[in-house]
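FORM 12-B: Structure-to-Sequence Request
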């Protein structure tokens, strides 16, 4: 994937809006890459917790998941533009968690070359690779 811009110089939201048009701040989630030794799945992953109530409000929208290439690298990343409908359609195949009275869809997306962007936490191994921009 071609880099959008250097995040050290440009705020991430501005970079994404330049590429995709208007995006609400709440629609963007960022994850560093967790190596296998620190991941709950023992495989390298990107970890996202998406509030279920917000997903249900924005059925026709997209969520932008920014996957940073390395724990400390801010200039190398990949973006998934995920239709909210796709998440809701596969809700039974994904893991939900409760935290502080709120329900979240927890995604642990594979950062490995095989099965990249497949959720490793839920029972259905939902593939999000078709959402890569």
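FORM 12-B RESPONSE
SEQUENCE OUT:
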């Amino acid at each position: 994937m071609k880099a959008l811009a250097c995040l050290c110089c440009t705020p991430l939201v501005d970079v994404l809006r330049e590429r995709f048009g208007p995006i609400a701040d709440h629609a963007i989630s960022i994850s560093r890459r967790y190596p296998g030794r620190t991941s709950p799945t023992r495989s390298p992953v990107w970890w996202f917790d998406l509030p279920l109530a917000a997903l249900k409000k924005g059925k026709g929208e997209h969520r932008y998941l920014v996957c940073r290439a390395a724990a400390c690298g801010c200039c190398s990343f990949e973006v998934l533009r995920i239709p909210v409908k796709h998440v809701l359609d596969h809700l039974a195949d994904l893991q939900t968690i409760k935290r502080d009275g709120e329900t979240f869809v927890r995604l642990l997306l594979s950062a490995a070359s095989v099965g990249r962007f497949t959720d490793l936490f839920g029972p259905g191994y939902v593939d999000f690779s078709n959402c890569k921009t």
